Amino acid sequence: xxxxxxxxxxxxxxxxxxxxxxxxxxxxxxxxxxxxxxxxxxxxxxxxxxxxxxxxxxxxxxxxxxxxxxxxxxxxxxxxxxxxxxxxxxxxxxxxxxxxxxxxxxxxxxxxxxxxxxxxxxxxxxxxxxxxxxxxxxxxxxxxxxxxxxxxxxxxxxxxxxxxxxxxxxxxxxxxxxxxxxxxxxxxxxxxxxxxxxxxxxxxxxxxxxxxxxxxxxxxxxxxxxxxxxxxxxxxxxxxxxxxxxxxxxxxxxxxxxxxxxxxxxxxxxxxxxxxxxxxxxxxxxxxxxxxxxxxxxxxxxxxxxxxxxxxxxxxxxxxxxxxx
Length: 325
Ligand SMILES: C[S@@+](CC[C@H](N)C(=O)[O-])C[C@H]1O[C@@H](n2cnc3c(N)ncnc32)[C@H](O)[C@@H]1O
Prior knowledge:
Elements: H1 13-19, E1 30-32, E2 39-41, H2 48-55, E3 60-65, H3 79-95, E4 97-107, E5 109-110, E6 116-117, H4 118-125, E7 131-144, E8 152-162, E9 171-175, E10 183-185, E11 188-190, H5 192-195, E12 200-202, E13 206-207, H6 230-240, E14 246-249, H7 256-264, E15 267-271, H8 275-291, H9 303-306, H10 312-324
Helix pairs in contact: 3-4, 6-7, 7-8
The structure holds S-adenosylmethionine.
């Protein structure tokens, strides 16, 4: 396995500054994928005029948003400001969703800060036209915490709908082994295994079968700090949209929703405020088109640009990434 890590770019200012000139999108610009028609915008999720340019006349069947959870951002946004900020991009999203559509929100509940912002977002959502449908928990393998509390390993995902959108049940790879739960069907008692539509267990609202992304996995994108597993996003896309339909993601980062859309035959319009994450998102799609690979494992999207760089600040940040890996 190649060992060429990149540190989290939000904590590597020298590398970040070096990469900005290589980004093909400047703030306000939009790239369109010539092969599948996806769009990536270096845009602000809370700007109605910027999102209007992204969308044109199109509406989407599904939105999958994964905003910053106000954990790192807590210093510059109070909780009230954070909730108001969420309300703005949710209102914009609603304007571009089909009459029958779904919205998924990835969120955090910080147990060191009154579980914010999850409950506050849930209460805010009650004042919108979205119907609450499910509260999913994905289990992470790694977490945070101390020896004096339960380690935090959960990742929250809220599912809302407008109108009456399609929903296709999804199945895990876990074999059904219990024959119990008898139900009467056509006057005959039938067990779980006879009744089932699949030999494997249906995904419920606790996802314990999804591996958190780490550097040994092909889909890993070094430099990113909040990458979601492709398996989770593909599960959402396959449950709540059909091939050919349009999916939105206003917080692209490593471009997972875009890649999941490509792999499942959907189209995706996605934005990120930061040109570096827009470039990573575009390069990840281009790499997939060229090689079929879903990420860089322990290499990274800017290895050509950083090869042979002698700047001591950059060398120090790269050395730190090696120690961490
Ligand atoms: C939690 S990450 C998303 C992770 C993504 N789901 C993935 O799998 O890679 C949040 C992203 O939102 C971006 N962001 C923050 N504020 C934004 C805004 N106002 N508009 C658009 N993007 C924003 C950040 O730059 C960051 O890349």
